[in-house]
Design a protein that fits this description.
Number of strands: 7
Radius of gyration: 38 Å
Order of helices and strands: HHHHHHHHEHEEHEEHEEH
Oligomer: single chain
Shape: elongated
Strand content: 5-15%
Helix content: 40-55%
């Protein structure tokens, strides 16, 4: 059976292969939207580039399966086994990975304490058990000595335990400070991690030993000698002195290692966040470029149609219109301004040139005025080509449908900390069920991309017909 042919056809019912054994099959680049693979064995399968949106893979074996560049949006992979799965480039927004087993096979070349602990293989389990047992042993030792100090009725034993607590606390503080303080210096001094740990171990060993000696010959000598006389047969007294030096050395190395791992993880997270921000920025720039590219051909198409209609009827007007169009496109292609912003003055100049182009076609049927309530508004930076599509829309759906004289008023004013760019025409009112046309949508999209919730576009029929763009002054000031 040719699986790709059987399962790659669109328009058929969703594929249902519940409780199937499909190990090693090739489903790359197939349309498997809404497919049901629940309770199936899907090991070593190639799903590269496949459409798996809304697919069900619950309680499935997906070990060593590849999903490179596949679409897993809103797919359900809950309770599945996913060891050594490759999800590079996959879209996983909304996918359900609840209670999945996503361990990797252990690789000695990828030795990392944090990675091993997170890994659910036997090596990770053993390391986690040893680490947990060590920590618990230490906590219980602390509890034991604390209880001895608090409950014992023997002053000499209590004094010895207090001395040991003092020594360990001081050694612990100094050890952590050394590991933390030497971190950057060790990286500069040694390139290989092994030499860093060896040097750190030597320094901590010497300093911890010096602290022990200082405490012993300070308040400790008398306490230790009295305890030795009182309890001469206790086996702990026969332990070599260097046994007690291993603790600070181990703690220093573990702390240094974990701090380096933490920094690497933080760096990776920061890098990923930076990459995501850059990707978002590039996506926004690409969308704005697409809007810009769509506006210019759209207007050119309408303008050339107008010129074509005048070439035979009125060549002089056609020539005038061509020169105005040339001026207009010098503005759109020749200005060395910000990619997406320009001053209100320049936007109004472009709109006036555009209206002059249309006035050649409409003659006395078109009258327009431009009103700026405060001359300081002319310097404000607003999105480029923000007014021209609105004015073009007023011509196309308003003035062109009137037998009498049409009027277009472009008005710039401020109200309650919002800058308003208002385009009024006396053409037919907007219908109640009117959907946004291309010009309106392009402006809405641009405002959304640049300002998010700090800008809005509204259509009004009362008190007069108008399209009103409002931009909050706070975002305008950022670009002005």
């Amino acid at each position: 059976m040719d699986c790709k042919k059987e399962m790659g056809e669109k328009g058929s019912k969703p594929l249902r292969m519940t409780a199937s054994s499909l190990d090693g099959r090739d489903f790359s680049n197939m349309d498997l939207e809404n497919a049901d693979f629940s309770f199936s064995s899907l090991k070593d399968i190639n799903f590269d580039g496949a459409n798996l949106r809304h697919a069900k893979m619950r309680f499935s074996a997906l070990d060593r399966t590849t999903f490179r560049n596949s679409d897993l949006r809103n797919a359900d992979l809950s309770f599945s086994s996913m060891s050594d799965v490759d999800l590079s480039g996959a879209k996983v927004e909304g996918a359900n990975f609840s209670f999945t087993s996503q361990e990797r096979s252990f690789n000695w070349q990828d030795f990392s304490l944090i990675g091993i602990i997170q890994n659910q293989s036997w090596v990770g389990t053993v390391v986690s058990i040893l680490l947990g047992a060590t920590i618990l042993y230490g906590i219980n030792a602390i509890a034991y000595f604390t209880a001895e100090i608090y409950y014992t009725n023997e002053p000499i034993r209590s004094n010895l335990y207090q001395l040991l607590v003092l020594q360990n606390v001081v050694s612990g503080i100094v050890t952590i400070l050394l590991a933390q303080g030497m971190s950057t210096w060790l990286e500069l001094l040694f390139k290989r991690p092994l030499w860093r740990h060896l040097f750190l171990s030597a320094v901590v060993f010497l300093i911890a030993n010096a602290i022990s000696v200082a405490i012993y010959y300070g308040p400790g000598k008398m306490i230790v000698e009295r305890y030795g006389k009182l309890y001469p047969n206790e086996s702990a007294q026969n332990a070599p002195w260097y046994w007690y030096m291993f603790g600070p050395v181990i703690i220093a190395n573990v702390f240094y290692y974990l701090s380096k791992e933490g920094k690497q993880i933080s760096r990776k997270i920061s890098d990923q966040e930076y990459q995501l921000l850059n990707l978002e920025k590039l996506k926004t720039r690409a969308e704005l470029d697409a809007l810009q590219a769509r506006i210019n051909p759209h207007f050119l198409y309408n303008a050339l149609n107008s010129i074509a209609s005048l070439v035979h009827e009125d060549p002089d007007k056609a020539e005038e219109m061509t020169l105005l169009l040339s001026k207009l496109f010098r503005y759109t292609t020749g200005r060395k301004t910000n990619d997406y912003f320009d001053s209100v003055a320049n936007e109004l100049e472009m709109v006036q040139t555009y209206l002059q182009v249309e006035k050649v076609r409409f003659g006395d049927r078109l009258k327009f005025t431009v009103e700026v309530m405060d001359t300081s508004f002319n310097e404000f930076q607003v999105p480029k080509f923000i007014l021209q599509p609105i004015v073009e829309n007023a011509i196309k759906h308003g003035i062109s449908r009137m037998a009498e004289q049409g009027l277009i008023v472009v008005r710039i004013y401020e109200d309650d900390n919002w800058l308003h760019l208002c385009v009024h025409d006396n053409g037919p009112a907007f219908p109640e069920t009117m959907g946004a046309g291309y010009g309106i949508r392009s402006v809405q999209d641009k405002l959304k991309l640049l300002y998010n919730e700090n800008a809005k576009l509204e259509l009004h029929n009362q008190p007069h017909k108008s399209v009103n763009i409002a931009i909050h002054r706070s975002v305008i000031d950022q670009h002005s």
